[in-house]
Amino acid sequence: MRIATALLAIGLLLSGATRARTESGEVWTHIRALSDGNPESREAAALALASFGSAARPAVPQLLSALRDDHVPVYVAASFALERVGEAAIPALAEALEKGGTDTRVEVARILARMGARATPAVPALLRALDSGDPLGRESAAAALGEIFDGNGTAGPELAARAAAGLQASLERNGPDPAETYARSAAATALGKVGAASAVPTLVAHMSDPDPRVRTACAWALGGGFLEPTQTRWMSNRPSRGGVGEAASAAVPALVAALSDGDHAVRWSAAQALGGLGPAAAEAIPSLWDVVRRPPPPPAPDPVPAPDAGGMVRVGDVLQVPAGATARPAPPDEPSATPPEAEGRGVLRISANLSRAPAGTGSLMVPAAGGALDVSAASTARARAEASLALHASVLRVHAAASLCELGEPAAAAAIADVLESDANAAAREIAAVQLGRIGDAAARPALEAALEDSDWQVREAAALALGRFP
Questions:
Q1: Measured in whole angstroms, how far is the alpha carbon of residue 377 from the centre of its chain?
Q2: Cα separation of 18 and 3, whole Å?
Q3: Which residues contact 247 (CB under 8 A, 6 or more apart)?
Q4: Which pLDDT does position 314 carry in this prediction?
Q5: Is 333 helix (H, G, I), strand (E, B) or coil?
Q6: Which of 162, 220, 311, 465 has a Cα-to-Cα distance from 341 of 20 to 30 A?
Q7: Which part of the chain is CATH 1.25.10.10?
Q8: Dihedral sign of CA atoms 149, 150, 154, 158 in order
Q9: Which among 130, 120, 127 is positioned nearest to 152, based on CA atoms?
Q10: Within 283-331, where are the H helices?
Q11: Which CATH code for domain 382-467?
């Protein structure tokens, strides 16, 4: 019996060794294919290496080189493969972070960010990257640090303190490069994910920063938030609550003041952040109610433009022919065409006269045969401005009401339901549905069920997901 057991063990060992040799041979076959002249072959090789996971460690140098490949699918596949290699690739990734070019450093930091807590050994290299003079490198390093420390209880307080110090120093740097705004805001956001109470004074000080992007990030870092303020139609859910929490109680006055900031994203972040501070933000409840009850912005006044000598009128960034005037043709050096949406309506789009209007100004809609305007550029610009202001006000109202619910004011949920039921802007209705689902107030169920019939599919989807969170 013992002899049979010994033979079985030897057989298993030999089988494992054979598999290892076969696997190793396949890895080297794919490594050689990374130098193939056909980009599709290189892409396939990188994807194949990804399937080996940590066993593809011998391919790390070649995969790092593939990050500079001119063919986009190749370096995307190489990045994925390096992530799959995991901890075994970290020493080489850390070295590339210090010695590679800007593009390589940015991509390496993204790989480490996707690895999350597994990339903890790379923190010292990322901290050195934070001290570089390259804003793009600092931005990506800060983002990676935020993902590594987000919910990571294994890094230890000493390493977290070093990360917080490095991120604060990056937030304080402000050079002439326009990319500094992204580096500094990424540092502030990462401080919220690290949860560094020691950074509260720095974050509060930068709530008065001249850069609205930095102010927005500091507000989120102080109190957190579930939705990222963005001007796009799709509002993304953040993967983490973020924020320093009750340790940021000293930030309440600055966050309350930010509810009236001139930038809508700052206002949104401040409204969300106050809800994340818990009982420490009790003094902000009256200010949040003021936001919820604030009347909608008044319509923009009708412009009273004065025509120039050629009969053209400037309205904001648009030149138009006044109603009732004769439309003149586009200058010979400027293009004019009938846009698809105007076909059959007898209108031409005539570009603004660049000799009198700066580059980037809007175009004009005038009748093809001359005469009065078919579409008033002034009224169109005014309508867009009014819609934008109304959207910003509705979103702020939703976030303020959601924070009130978090602070023990459940009656505020009715204001969110009102936005979901009656707001003209689909983006505002979508956010209202998401927040109602997060709050979980049973009284909101009728509004969410009604939203399942909304005319906008994204609102319907948000309502369905929100209802799925109810018991």
A1: 32
A2: 22
A3: 197, 200
A4: 44
A5: coil
A6: 311
A7: 21-209, 382-467
A8: positive
A9: 120
A10: 285-293
A11: 1.25.10.10
- What is the strand order of the sheet 347-351 is part of? 336-337, 347-351, 363-367
Q: Is the Cβ–Cβ distance between 424 and 450 less than 8 Å? A: no
pLDDT at 208: 94
CA distance 127 to 162: 8
What residue type is 378 in one-letter code? Answer: A
Comparing CA positions, the residue from 204, 190, 201, 134 lying closest to residue 162 is: 190
- Classify domain 21-209 by CATH number: 1.25.10.10
* Mean pLDDT of successive 10-residue stretches along the chain, which has 471 residues: 45 40 74 89 92 92 91 91 92 90 90 92 93 89 92 79 94 86 93 87 94 92 69 46 74 95 90 89 95 78 48 43 39 38 34 33 38 40 67 91 93 94 89 89 91 92 89 76
Give the DSSP letter string of 364-430. Answer: EEEETT-SS-SS-HHHHHHHHHHHHHHHHHHHHHHHHHHHHHHTT-GGGHHHHHHHHHH-S-HHHHH
Residue type, 44: A
Could you tell me the two tokens for 430?
């979508």
Write the Ramachandran bin of 336: left for phi over 0, alpha for psi from -120 to 50, otherwise beta: beta
Q: Which amino acid is at 394?
A: S
Alpha carbons 321 and 371: distance in angstroms, whole number: 9
d(CA 399, CA 432): 8
Rounded Cα distance, 42 and 69, in Å: 9
Q: How many CA atoms lie within 13 A of 216 on its CB side?
A: 18
Name the one residue in this structure whose structure tokens are 């004019």: 336
